[in-house]
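Check this:
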Amino acid sequence: MLSQIGNPNLKPIASIDRLIHEPARLMILAVLYAVESADFTFLLGQTGMSRGNLSSHLSKLEAAGYIAIHKEFVEKTPHTQLSLTNKGRQAYQVYRQNLAGVLTVLGE
């Protein structure tokens, strides 16, 4: 259990956001962090996930308030646009800082 870790330098591990730490969701957030917004098809190509898998992870990120999903029809074709919310951008930045701290301590 993480709360029983004897080395206080490893405490940042316990504060890592587990929702973000899942590799598929980390990929999604990394892509969205680098762009203002992206459509569903672009994320499919960038992540290599299946449509169902990507949809499932997007739903979890949306429920957490980390991403905004805007759905519309463009010439009778569904179009889904995604972007990080301010909360998502901040959570991703904190995640990166915590992970960098852990990796620094472990590298010593």
Summary: Strands lie at 38-39, 67-74, 77-84. The chain is about 60% helix and 15% strand. The first strand starts at residue 38 and ends at 39. Residues 11-107 form a domain with the Arc Repressor Mutant, subunit A fold (CATH 1.10.10.10).
